[in-house]
Amino acid sequence: MDDVTLAQFMSKVEIQPNGCWYWTGHITDDGYGTFYIDGSNQLAHRVAYAHLVEPIPDGLELDHLCHTRSPGCPGGKTDLHRRCVNPFTDLEPVTGAENAHRRSLVVTQCPQGHDYTPENTYYPPKGGKECRECRAERGRQWVAEHNPGVRHGTETHCPQGHPYLGGNLYIIPSTGGRMCRQCKRDSGREYMRRKRAAAKAARAA
User: Is the CB of residue 81 less than 8 Å from the CB of residue 67?
Assistant: First the structure.
């Protein structure tokens, strides 16, 4: 980065009392700053580290240490730590898994204020953590939107006309909604029929 480009870069930086360098230029929908350099728009915090410290090793991403050092930080797209471009004290190259792990340790509550207790915490395969209570609520909202009759228990039959009676009624634990066992069996049979047909077509080819 030559002196002119460095001056342009630093003109978009606002140094905070806590040491963060907040980016005042363009911000992406995810809350990160961008800077035009080498013919393309690039993430400002990566530009800062790569040009002022050292190249970022392939396959690694930058952890905002200022976020990691802030217990209770809400995180998310509006988190100002995402705008920090201080490459000397607030950025560190790490793997994606390590970055997600560090973020999960910092945040003690979900955006809705539910505590991340062992019972209320779900760890997705890709890393991070989610609030089980919020996941369940999203499921209830989806059911309410797509099949409100079943959600509120006002219908006596499934959409295919099978009665919600006795052994044909299944209550979904996570949402409290109802499911028709007959339709579930029919769906399973149709799946197997298609699978066998696909295997037969593959053998014929």
Answer: yes
